[in-house]
Amino acid sequence: MNDNAKTPTGNPGAGGARTKGDVLLEVRGLKIDGESDEIWRPIVKGVDLSLKRGEVLGVIGESGAGKSTIGLAAMGYARPGCRISGGSVVFDGLDLVSASDEQRRKLRGSRIAYVAQSAAASFNPAHQLMPQTIEAELREGLRTKAEAEKDAVELYRRLRLPNPEEIGFRYPHQVSGGQLQRAMTAMAMTCRPDLIIFDEPTTALDVTTQVEVLAAIRDIVEQFHTAAIYITHDLAVVAQMADRIMVLRHGLEVEEAPTREMLSNPKQDYTKSLWSVRKLGKEEQPGGDAILQVKNVTAAYGNAVKVLNDVTVTVPRGRTVAVVGESGSGKSTLARVITGLLPPIAGEIVFDGKVLPRALKDRNPDILRRIQMIYQMPDTALNPRQTVYEVIGRPLEFYLGLTGAKKEARILELLKLIEMDEGHLDRLPGELSGGQKQRICIARALAAEPQLIICDEVTSALDQIVQEEILKLLLRLQRELNVSYLFITHDIATVRAISDEIVVMFQGQVVQQGPKTRVLSPPYPPYTELLLSSVPEMDPDWLSNLLAKRKAQPAAMQSQDR
Amino acid sequence: MNPVLRTVLQRLGLGIATLFVVSIIISLTIEMLPGDFAKAILGQSATPETVAAFQREVGLDRSPVVRYVEWVGGIVRGDFGESYASAGSLAGHRRLVSEMIAPRLLNTLFLAGAAAMIAVPLSLFLGIMAALYRNSYFDRAVNVVSLTSISSPEFFLAYILIMFLAVKFPIFVSLASITPGMSLGDRLYAIMLPTLTLVLVIVAHMMRMTRAAIINLLASPYIEMSRLKGVKPLQIILRHALPNAWAPIANVIALNLAYLVVGVVVVEVVFTYPGIGQLMVDAVSKRDLPVVQGCALVFAATYILLNLLADVVTIVSNPRLLHPR
Question: Which residue of B has its CA nearest to A108?
Fold first, then answer.
């Protein structure tokens, strides 16, 4: 247990010279089955993996590749509906597959810890952070309660949480997502485990927050010489964190190599295709007449603080305007105001030359038809009990009065437009993949023949390869149908790929607005610079360089701690 | 303001409004009862003069609205009125409704309390154990037994208990008569059989809700997290699931406790227990309207109070409500 509190300066960076110990975890021929419809199907089909003490292994792959399942199996844990059907997971001499429940349980939390993707959901809402943080060490009798609390405060401090003395006595709902993610890392660290599984720990965070959490995780893992498995679908993130990278697909290893080698010289075609995804781009086109003008809009929920403050945004016909900003900046509220779900307090919305009624109930069906929306979570945006036919058929009937053979013909046309076919007509959302579900949402929006589609983080829940497909589809549809997009996102790569114009929002106000090339080239306003500089790059030294740079000019560059 | 206090005040206000509406409904219903109250009370042979005198005395000669206003006005001052049964009879022998209800209500509360003391902890315990060992033989056995008991009519359960525990094996007594001078132990002994009957009736509902509320939470990410922290299975349920399950459980408990106060007339009759349920049924058959009205109000107030308690538990058990951001 290395307890010295050296300050984390001049990190060698991922892939740098770190001393590695003997082998800690040895996975051989791991097979895991998952049950669906009472049939066991293989999810992981024989994966080997070995990890030395103090080493960080990055595991990447698209969703469904079996990343999380392998991460959990490294703790000897299989989710309900899954079972480890073969192979061995030897942790420090003990095979966790054949070990007893009691043996496995004793290891968890004390010697192998887990950091989940959504800390907000993984902290128990009924208890304060502190008792949850120190639960495992109290159970193992490693420290007294007072010592454990003192140690937890020290960990909170090292993870740069604000008010480390007091934050432990808050409830999860009183703490922001980024802070919870760090608190969860502190919780994992309390017993000074030999191994931590990080399962997409920053995926749910804004880029500006992600930088803080990544830096904190990297420091503390280095300080305590902890081995880690870092699971993510974001290549740029894994490049900062891992010593070695393992690429997974369909439950099998594609390739494995040290980070720098993997980044500079991927061998397999699949890996190369992952690397190329981030290069999608769109030629910026100048705007024509405006289809939508949001003029000086101010909005609030209830009588609370203003969520939007004097916001003005223009969307040219047939173009894409990307609205970027971190969570809480008012992006989604803007969408709610435009659609009429939240009537603004002040300002007006002009659509196709006419001022729109503020409230949804005052708008006629034709206006509703012309503005459609696509949501972040296709899972929740689709009624799980309606087939694809019903989902797409409904707007055709409702807005356009199509029935019978005409409706069916149009549905098939729309399916063709989104590159799906009649074989999908009778499927329920549960029988489709995430990307397919989002396509159905797009088809549903298109069915109304809208002039403007508001896309609210439509690719955030998808992995990168599917993201690229969806973005390409949206671009093609725009070329063919001349539809305009208001594209809400916090992902700068997506913005580069799809937008003509960019609106940068911060705390309910528009910070910057203009053509893509102008917004994305210097000189930047401070917030735009912070946002852009926080987007991880594939360079494994990116995080170290960024932190060094921010340290050099601290005040102007500090992100809002959220 | 403190959210608990605010909710309590809010619900109390709403509760009083509800009681007010209930009082109107009670009075309207009673106006609609067929037959002549005076005749029902004085008997068929009563002369028109006695009937008129009786009506004058109890105020039945005035309009329903005036009587309603007087009744509500009296209740606000704590006066539930006088029983008709005593009116018009011997002078000086007047019985206040409140005097008639109070001892009966105490008896009912005593029985309900005894049943609740056994049933609530028992159903929580069984529910937690059934959730812990879900789908095991224990879980199934508990479910089958409790479903059987809830599916049987109360009087049937009561007679079964009497047959086994009072007749074949005379452990308890079948007549639950209690008198003012009895010691607590004697009283508890006397009401053992009705208590057991009530326990059998209400355990199933509460037990199944406890089990369902806990199992419902076991798929949450924070439960998985506690498993991955190596928390023991029982501790997962007690420390991580149960604190988040109190709201639905408390609501079902409140509903069942209300039943213990207002719905047990059958059990009271079987064991000839002098509770408020019997008082109300007697009063209805005797057309003793002030007593009926008083009982109905007490029942309504019981429901409102118990639901208020459930709301308070809901808030206190949820930090999001107790400690807003």
Answer: B230
Beta-carbon pairs below 8 A across chains A and B: 75
Shortest CA gap B222–chain A (Å): 4
- SS3 readout for A313-338: EEEECCCEEEEECCCCCCHHHHHHHH
Residues in chain A with pLDDT < 70? Answer: 1-20, 276-281, 303-304, 553-562
* Structure token digits, residue A322: 């990307």
| Domains of chain A, earliest start first | 24-278 (3.40.50.300), 290-521 (3.40.50.300)
Per-residue pLDDT tens for A303-341?
667 888 899 999 999 899 999 888 778 888 899 899 988
Using an 8 Å Cβ cutoff, are A45 and A217 in contact?
A: no
* Full DSSP string of A146-185: HHHHHHHHHHHHHTT-SSHHHHTTS-GGGS-HHHHHHHHH
Contact A562/B at CB under 8 A: no
At A271, give phi and psi (nearest 5°): -60, -45
Tally the C-alpha atoms within 13 A of residue B129's C-alpha that lie toward its C-beta.
13
Could you tell me the two tokens for A73? 């199996």
**CATH number for B146:** 1.10.3720.10
The ipTM (two decimal places) reads: 0.80
Percent of chain B with pLDDT over 90: 44
In a domain, B95, yes or no: no
Candidates A105, A108, A124, A191: best to mutate against B (most CBs of B within 10 A) is A124
Are B224 and A122 a contacting pair at CB < 8 A?
yes
- pLDDT on residue A63: 73
